[in-house]
Amino acid sequence: MNVFVVNCGSSSLKYQLIETDSEKVVAKGICERIGIDGKLKHKPTGKDEVVKEVAMPDHKAAVAYVLEALTDENSGVIADLSEIDAVGHRIVHGGEKFASSVVITDDIISAIEECNDLAPLHNPANLIGIAACRELMKDVPMVGVFDTAFHQTMPKKAFMYGLAYEYYEEYKIRKYGFHGTSHSFVSKRLLEILNKTDEPSKVIICHLGNGSSITAVKDGKSFDTSMGFTPLDGLIMGTRTGSIDPAVVQYIADKKGYTIDQVMNVLNKESGVDGLSGVSSDFRDLDEASMAGNERAILALEMFAYRAAQYIGSYVAAMNGIDAIAFTAGIGENDDKVRAAICSYLGYLGITLDVDANNVRGKEALITTADSKVPVYTIPTNEELAIARETVALIS
Ligand code: ADP
């Protein structure tokens, strides 16, 4: 079956066409600068990448160019659109309405719209992508896969804030958590490796990328996670502060004469390891700067690992135990130094890193010694494949 996986942002659209029996990517690409000018980068597997600068006034135009590229005589991978069996859409926020993926219908679209307030930058863009695909591929079944759905199993004591209850009742202010598709995919794989798919289990998944979050997964279900009402909470990230005393917001606003929007911009886009180091949000640049002795880069990396280790410790306590830990996403899969720095705090769990095995990038691997009490793995995430699998499961 060919599943077209779509991840629509406000001015971009990432896609993959996945053949789900072999789980191979047939083609993938991205449309950028939608609504500004427009650029399509299309990579058919086994053929050269095609880059086209073409006017993309809206997402419908972008989808049309992608479908054209997929069926083109030269860059194409399918003869015509009838070879696309289903579309899987990534949707950021499903609020409390969606605890799993769904087949998209008019009613479902209305229900997703009701979650727009919770993710005003992302959900409307996701819906525009859905509308564009529905218009251009009328009879093709479509599935929505939510970043928040996996975390809907968190117990109330984990997802509530210590905020007056009426704010939850009236405005649904609570922890939702994000990266759910990745945490679900990687935790499933980890439980397979451990042979604990159908047994009681306690694992922790560290999704460390540009945005980072850590999830406690108990018996295969999300039990607690570090991101909150928004993806700003929790770990220190590329440009985001992570958890911070909320009183800082008012203090910066007063000192700088900023609006709340301006302060939130500082917290979301000018902070994290980027703002701390003054070097970059990219850990490759930070590693290089720290090796050259840049003290702020060294501090940023130390803080990143320290905060991650704190979350791991708190989740071991919350679950009263731990069977295994997995690192995933750009940093988790590739940065051996960050993994080593985090594991250096975990000796009390009987974790001993295997320095040679930890010298691994982008591959599934066991990175602890044979006598480590808790095994630690790197497991590459694949959100597109997870969306394709969910899509097949729902339409079959
Ligand atoms: P996103 O949240 O954008 O999906 P990714 O999971 O792709 O992010 O992670 C991107 C980040 O991964 C980069 O900003 C960089 O910090 C880090 N990264 C990627 N490759 C490496 C590498 N080889 N070594 C260290 N860090 C890396």
Structure characterization notes:
With 396 residues, the protein is α/β, with parallel strands linked by helices. Helix content is 37%, strand content 19%. The protein is built from 14 helices and 14 strands. Strands 5-4-3-2-1-6-8-7 form an eight-stranded mixed β-sheet, with helices on both faces. A six-stranded mixed β-sheet has the order 11-10-9-12-14-13, with helices on both faces. The radius of gyration is 21 Å and the shape is globular. The N and C termini lie close together (10 Å). Residues 209-211, 238, 281-284, 329-331, 334-335, 361 line the site of adenosine-5'-diphosphate (ADP).
Low-pLDDT ranges? none
Strand order of the largest sheet: 5-4-3-2-1-6-8-7
Helix/strand/pairing category: alpha/beta
Main pleated sheet? 8 strands, mixed
Distinct small molecules: adenosine-5'-diphosphate
Overall form: globular
What is the first-to-last residue Cα distance? Answer: 10 Å
Helical stretch count?
A: 14
Radius of gyration: 21 Å
Strand content: 15-25%
What is the string of helix and strand elements?
Answer: EEEEEHEEHHEHHHEEEHHHHHEHHEEH
The overall strand count is 14
State the share of residues found in helices, binned by percent. Answer: 25-40%
Q: How much is the average pLDDT? A: 97
